[in-house]
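Good morning C.,

I know you're traveling, so I'll keep this short. The sequence:
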Amino acid sequence: MEAYLYEPLKEKKVKCNLCSHRCIIKDGKRGICGVRENQGGILKTLVYGKLIASHIDPIEKKPLFHFMPGSLSYSIATVGCNFKCLFCQNADISQMPSDHNGMITGDLYTPEDVVNAAVKGNCKSIAYTYTEPTVFFEFAFDTAKLAHAKGIKNVFVTNGYMTSEAVHMISPYLDAANVDLKAFNKSFYKEVVKARLEPVKKTLKLMKSLGIFVEVTTLLIPGLNDDKKELEKLALFLVKSLGPETPWHVSAFYPTYRLTDRPPTPVESLVAARKIGINAGLKYVYIGNVPSEDGENTFCSNCGKLLINRLGFSIIKNMLENGRCPYCGTQINGIWLDEI
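The tokens, ready to paste straight into the viewer:
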């Protein structure tokens, strides 16, 4: 299928305008993502409908804690990614094309198949996740448009590296996103994920301005992105650019893929990062990938009372009433099932 968001250049080259790499691709070659190929001056997507994964997950697994908590999300992915994260937890599928001589595999689905499966599974949303949804943008867009018409919400779990053109194109149908803000230093992005920080910051601001509900995740890697001052700057960026109501998830790293010389993230580091976020003014900071007494729960930002009690990806008790604290009446930022 012909790709969206590209422009032809001289000598049958094309420029892909889907993500911020903006690859210039020669005839017969692919972009950094490994799944978009220039075929005679026409950019083709090689993964349309070729799903490598399709599962029903709790929305909390994305992680989204303030977006229809307790609901199910039909989660899909193709192979490929526009990042080269040394610590990728899904490298077997995200890096399949680059690690296995361009290999692309998956089961064929239509957008109708995905939406029907979501309805059958009693899913309130479809999540484009596991790998980077930008690289299967055409299929995500067509599916999201169809889901939107049926009253099913759409969620991107993304590295935030899409262009403004892509964000604007999907925004009428994209309800929420969890964006990885992987670090707050340029060298980390350049050396560890082979990308740049600034486009991610721009995407976060743009999504917020377009009314897409945003939560942010940072995977803390010992010695690479867990410096106290860096985390303070990151938290302040969230407060000032997205608002203090933005949920921030700080998650534990485990050695994997090509980054096995680092230890798992100590729980103390996650607790410290949570405190940094709260001290910076963030109202909702969560700890992920490890059990945590308070780090998984939602508390009222005004009176401090427990509102949503979680255990892992499960809701033990949700005391919100129409999105408000039942004790003091404070409106809690989010999209809640009883308000839809």
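Safe travels,
E.
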